[in-house]
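Appendix B. One record, verbatim.
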Amino acid sequence: MDEDRARHRSMELPKPPRCPLCGKPREQRYRPFCSARCRDVDLGRWFDQAYSVPVTEPGYDEEPEEG
């Protein structure tokens, strides 16, 4: 009986991706979000610097890396 359950679970389809902000199913048109609203909220967070990409800047006594 446990084998049947395990086999059934392995045959289940993966869950559709969800919107990273609200968790609703994604809409292809607004990928990876579900709506224009969630897309715009995310963009606003970037503009407000709520999100940032970490950067390591060289110190004053260090030479910048060339490359």
